[in-house]
Amino acid sequence: MRQIVTDARLIACCGLYCGACGSYLRERCPGCLGNTSATWCKVRACCLERGHGSCADCTSVHDVRDCGKFHNWISRLIGFVLRSDRAACIACIKEKGRDAFAREMASSRRHSMPR
Prior knowledge:
By secondary structure, the chain is mainly alpha-helical. It has one domain (8-108). It contains five helices and no strands. It has helices at 22-25, 42-50, 73-82, 86-96, 98-108. The radius of gyration is 13 Å and the shape is globular. The termini are far apart.
Protein backbone atom coordinates (compact mmCIF):
# COMPACT_ATOMS: atom_id res chain seq x y z
CA MET A 1 0.00 0.00 0.00
CA ARG A 2 1.21 3.49 -0.87
CA GLN A 3 1.75 6.17 1.75
CA ILE A 4 0.17 9.62 1.63
CA VAL A 5 2.77 12.04 0.34
CA THR A 6 2.76 15.69 -0.67
CA ASP A 7 3.03 15.84 -4.44
CA ALA A 8 1.35 18.50 -6.60
CA ARG A 9 1.43 16.05 -9.52
CA LEU A 10 -1.21 14.03 -7.64
CA ILE A 11 -3.82 16.79 -7.94
CA ALA A 12 -6.58 15.61 -10.27
CA CYS A 13 -7.85 17.86 -13.04
CA CYS A 14 -11.09 18.37 -11.10
CA GLY A 15 -9.25 19.39 -7.93
CA LEU A 16 -9.41 16.15 -5.96
CA TYR A 17 -6.15 15.07 -4.34
CA CYS A 18 -5.33 11.60 -5.66
CA GLY A 19 -2.48 11.29 -3.15
CA ALA A 20 -4.97 10.70 -0.32
CA CYS A 21 -7.56 8.70 -2.28
CA GLY A 22 -8.19 5.14 -1.10
CA SER A 23 -8.06 3.72 -4.62
CA TYR A 24 -4.73 5.39 -5.30
CA LEU A 25 -3.29 4.34 -1.94
CA ARG A 26 -4.35 0.71 -2.50
CA GLU A 27 -2.75 0.89 -5.96
CA ARG A 28 -6.06 0.33 -7.76
CA CYS A 29 -5.73 3.63 -9.63
CA PRO A 30 -2.66 5.46 -10.95
CA GLY A 31 -4.20 8.86 -10.21
CA CYS A 32 -5.89 11.23 -12.61
CA LEU A 33 -2.99 12.15 -14.84
CA GLY A 34 -1.68 8.59 -15.04
CA ASN A 35 -5.09 7.06 -15.69
CA THR A 36 -5.08 6.81 -19.48
CA SER A 37 -8.22 4.65 -19.35
CA ALA A 38 -10.25 7.55 -17.91
CA THR A 39 -11.40 8.62 -21.36
CA TRP A 40 -14.94 8.97 -19.93
CA CYS A 41 -13.88 11.98 -17.80
CA LYS A 42 -14.79 15.19 -19.63
CA VAL A 43 -12.98 17.36 -17.09
CA ARG A 44 -9.72 15.45 -17.56
CA ALA A 45 -10.07 15.53 -21.35
CA CYS A 46 -10.71 19.29 -21.33
CA CYS A 47 -7.72 20.04 -19.10
CA LEU A 48 -5.39 17.83 -21.14
CA GLU A 49 -6.63 19.36 -24.40
CA ARG A 50 -6.01 22.90 -23.09
CA GLY A 51 -2.74 22.07 -21.33
CA HIS A 52 -4.11 22.82 -17.85
CA GLY A 53 -2.97 21.01 -14.71
CA SER A 54 -6.47 21.44 -13.28
CA CYS A 55 -9.61 23.51 -13.68
CA ALA A 56 -7.90 26.12 -11.48
CA ASP A 57 -5.84 27.08 -14.55
CA CYS A 58 -8.90 27.72 -16.74
CA THR A 59 -9.46 31.27 -17.89
CA SER A 60 -12.59 30.52 -19.95
CA VAL A 61 -14.87 30.15 -16.93
CA HIS A 62 -14.56 32.33 -13.83
CA ASP A 63 -16.45 29.99 -11.48
CA VAL A 64 -16.20 26.24 -12.06
CA ARG A 65 -19.82 25.89 -10.99
CA ASP A 66 -20.67 27.59 -14.30
CA CYS A 67 -18.85 24.91 -16.32
CA GLY A 68 -21.08 22.13 -17.64
CA LYS A 69 -18.19 19.68 -17.80
CA PHE A 70 -17.21 20.29 -14.18
CA HIS A 71 -20.55 20.91 -12.49
CA ASN A 72 -23.07 18.52 -14.03
CA TRP A 73 -25.78 16.57 -12.22
CA ILE A 74 -23.64 13.41 -11.94
CA SER A 75 -20.75 15.26 -10.30
CA ARG A 76 -23.16 17.05 -7.95
CA LEU A 77 -24.71 13.72 -6.94
CA ILE A 78 -21.33 12.06 -6.36
CA GLY A 79 -20.13 15.10 -4.39
CA PHE A 80 -23.24 14.93 -2.23
CA VAL A 81 -22.88 11.21 -1.54
CA LEU A 82 -19.14 11.43 -0.83
CA ARG A 83 -19.51 14.78 0.98
CA SER A 84 -16.77 16.31 -1.16
CA ASP A 85 -16.54 19.81 -2.55
CA ARG A 86 -14.42 19.87 -5.70
CA ALA A 87 -15.29 23.52 -6.33
CA ALA A 88 -13.77 24.39 -2.93
CA CYS A 89 -10.67 22.41 -3.94
CA ILE A 90 -10.34 24.45 -7.14
CA ALA A 91 -10.83 27.69 -5.18
CA CYS A 92 -8.12 26.61 -2.72
CA ILE A 93 -5.70 25.80 -5.55
CA LYS A 94 -6.36 29.24 -7.09
CA GLU A 95 -5.87 30.98 -3.74
CA LYS A 96 -2.91 29.08 -2.28
CA GLY A 97 -1.28 27.37 -5.25
CA ARG A 98 -0.80 23.72 -6.17
CA ASP A 99 2.03 22.98 -3.73
CA ALA A 100 0.25 24.47 -0.71
CA PHE A 101 -2.97 22.66 -1.65
CA ALA A 102 -1.11 19.33 -1.93
CA ARG A 103 0.53 19.93 1.47
CA GLU A 104 -2.80 20.77 3.08
CA MET A 105 -4.57 17.73 1.65
CA ALA A 106 -1.72 15.33 2.49
CA SER A 107 -1.38 16.62 6.05
CA SER A 108 -5.15 16.40 6.62
CA ARG A 109 -5.24 13.00 4.87
CA ARG A 110 -8.18 14.08 2.68
CA HIS A 111 -8.77 13.66 -1.03
CA SER A 112 -11.25 16.55 -1.10
CA MET A 113 -12.35 19.58 0.82
CA PRO A 114 -15.34 18.59 2.96
CA ARG A 115 -18.81 19.74 2.02
